[in-house]
Give the backbone structure.
Amino acid sequence: MVATPELLDPNFHRVVVLMLEHNEDGALGLVLNRPRLIGGAAAVPQWEDRLAAPGYLHTGGPVSEDSIIG
């Protein structure tokens, strides 16, 4: 899903979202074009050997920002 220029909400302005799930309970997606500055190994050390370079995290949101999909 690609946000239109008219969408001014800072959570979704100019983002590309990969929708993983959408149903009557809500939606789940990953923002693809805003990698986090923190590396995945710093956030989840046990994943360090599974991360492809450069190993940055991609965020969803603005709900459940403390969750990780692996």
